[in-house]
Amino acid sequence: MGAGRSAIADLIDGAIAGAVATWVMGRVTTYLYEHESTAVREREDEARSGKTAYAVAAEKAARLAGTELSEEERDKYGSTIHWALGISAGALYSVLRPRLRSAELAHGLAFGTAFWLLMDEGAVYALKLTPGPTAFPWQTHARGLAGHLTFGAVADATLHALQPAA
């Protein structure tokens, strides 16, 4: 927290930074995905059965609630989960940043790398939202890392703009 700033203000700034970073990350990863070879895209799509980890999470949550989702609902709720996670990550970064100098290391790149390792390379597999990492081509992992590095850098830049004196 910056001097005289409340934790609530930092969380709000972080949520804004997380939303901006999620949007930019989506543009970067979509661009990279669209410029991969057809064979790489097909291998990835086959590994994840054409569903994102977020869509699978939405399906699992619906099953726990005793309901099933249409394909449209699955994608809508999956997108909601994706945005909620990005906004929450931005809020977390905003809180960690002034308290742990390592959180701001390299202007958000360390946070982005840690988030990629935790989520893309760990949690989605541990929660059985995707098959294991070896099911995907290296380009999938590289694109995920590039996306999360983008997320960290954009979140940090947004926080610097929102909190210039912090």
Could you characterize what this model shows?
The chain has 166 residues and is mainly alpha-helical. The protein has one domain. Helices cover 72% and strands 0% of the residues. The chain is built from six helices and no strands. It has helices at residues 7-34, 38-47, 53-64, 71-96, 109-126, 138-162. The protein is globular and about 50 Å long. The mean pLDDT is 92.
Q: Which tags fit this structure?
A:
single chain, mainly alpha, 166 residues
Largest sheet: none
Which stretches of 5+ consecutive residues score pLDDT under 50? none
| Large-scale geometry | globular
- Please tell me how large the radius of gyration is: 17 Å
End-to-end CA span:
7 Å
Helical content, roughly?
A: over 70%
Number of helices: 6
Number of domains: 1
For the residues shown, what is the average pLDDT? 92
Beta-strand percent range:
under 5%
| Secondary structure: number of strands | 0
Helix/strand structural class? mainly alpha
Secondary-structure element sequence? HHHHHH
